[in-house]
Each structure stands twice: as C-alpha cells, then as structure tokens.
Predict the 3D structure of the following.
Amino acid sequence: MRIDLLVQGAPLETGAPGRALTFAQAVLDAGHRIGRIFFYKDAVTIGNRFASDDADVCAGWTELAAQHGFELAICVAAASRRGIVDESIAPGFSIVGLGQLIEAAESSDRLVSF
C-alpha cells in the first residue's frame, strides 16, 4: 500500500512534523511504502536549513527519505510567505506547487494529514 503524508502543523507549536516522522517510520516498518511527504502551511519551516530549532526532525526526514526513496516536497506558496527560498532549502527537500499534493492524493492509497 502506498501512503503519502500531508504535514501542516508548525514544528515547535504542534509537533506535527515529529509525529508524522514517527508515523512514516511505522508505515515503512509495516511493509508499506511512501511516495511523497508534502509540507504545507507552517510545516514548511521544517525544510529550512537555517531553522536550527527543527534540526533533529529535519535530519530525521532527510535520512528516512534517503533510505526509502520518497520525496520531501515543500509548498512553494507557503514557503515564500515565510521567507523560505531555494537557497535556504535543506538538502533532500524540494520546492513544488500544490499540484504535487493533488497528484499525491490521486496516486496514493491513503493520504494522511498531520
């Protein structure tokens, strides 16, 4: 089963990116696969390489994605509203449009939101 994730909550205020990371690891441990993690709203800050408060969760996402070959996608509109540009994106993350979220919803068996 392919499961994709939509992460929207702020890392420090809601803990959503950390909980989503734990969930993603459980999904993979159960033998399922992940195609894309789409970071939206305040969760886009997790992919900002200059946000040192979120360094452990950012590194966790980067490691997991590299090991299992899934995409870490950051919404371009949400990122630009928060001052995140191409130069500040952490390695392993990419800036994409909302169309990638629609594609994830259509091509996955489940889209889980955090």
